[in-house]
Amino acid sequence: MGVKSKIVIGNWKMNGSAELVESFTRTMLDNQAAYAGIRVVLCPPFTLLQAMADALEGGPILLGAQNVSEFEQGAHTGEISAPMLASMGTKMVIIGHSERRASRGENDRIIAAKVKQALSVGMLPVLCVGETAEEKARGDSGAVVWQQLSVVLHAIGSELFGQLIVAYEPIWAIGSGSTASTDDILTITTAIHAKLAQLGIQLPLLYGGSVNAGNAAQISSLPTISGLLVGGASLQAGQFLLLCSNTAKGA
Ligand SMILES: O=C[C@H](O)COP(=O)(O)O
Does the keyword Ion transport apply (predicted)? Predict the structure, then answer.
């Protein structure tokens, strides 16, 4: 999957149904011209991946997953491996989302192992990082985000790290209705790009956290931002189509 065009990733989280897959993909595929020129990826829950893969087949929208096992195969009840996801046509996988770090105990070691698993089968990992409201209030946003990135960087090495997409998602902005300010997004993402550049690494940075059709164009057109990771606003086809269309117009 090329990463030169702007990217919009819809993360359905633990929502959706077979009916939603059908109606949602129909709306999106019937209106492809509206988002020509950008990359759109849809990440339904595991149970809807096959239905989504079938519905998207042959079209411009790519299939993504919300998680992947850190193990390749074997006695890991309830886990879904990278080869399993890839065999369904999954091109991208979200790794280290703050909801999984907070409620599923995902630590840096596990996250780094998941990144390696995804890359080993050619799936593009989208590594999520972001600070809490308390960390932001202390003025620690940049340090926290860099710490999250550098742990994975050191675990997997700069060559593999350069193959990632990173999503900056301030935890306090997720599902809150308030995005980070464009000044804050610029400050954090400029600093990340600069630190990575010192290591000879250049990769796409996305923003996530209360993105909607109204703010997508402004955020996605920031010079340091390559796209958007969208939660709530990716669950209603009309709204998501408009969000993608507005991003495409600003691209
Ligand atoms: O993965 C998506 C992010 O957590 C953002 O979610 P949200 O758009 O509902 O704030």
Answer: no
Atom of ligand 1 nearest to the CA of 210: 10
Tell me the C-alpha distance between 190 and 141, whole Å: 13
- pLDDT tens for 148-188 read 999 999 999 999 999 999 999 999 999 999 999 999 999 99
Q: Where are the alpha helices (DSSP H) in the chain?
A: 18-30, 49-56, 82-87, 98-103, 108-120, 133-137, 141-156, 158-161, 182-198, 216-220, 237-250
Q: Is 41 in the pocket of ligand 1 (CB under 6 A)?
A: no
Angle in degrees, 0-180, between the axes of helices 108-120 and 141-156, rounded to the nearest 10: 50
pLDDT digits (tens, 9 = 90+) for 12-32: 999 999 999 999 999 999 999
ipTM above 0.85, yes or no: yes
Closest ligand 1 atom to residue 209 Cα is 10
Share of the chain above pLDDT 70, in %: 99
pLDDT in the model for residue 105: 87
Pocket test for ligand 1, best of 7, 8, 9, 11 (most atoms within 8 A of CB): 11
Ligand 1 centroid to Cα of residue 83, in Å, is 26
Can you say which residues are annotated as belonging to the binding site for substrate? Answer: 11-13, 175, 210, 231-232
Question: Measured in angstroms, how far is the CA atom of residue 14 from the centroid of ligand 1?
Answer: 12
- Residue ranges and CATH numbers for the domains of the chain are 7-12+63-70+79-250 (3.20.20.70)
Residue with tokens 């091109």: 91
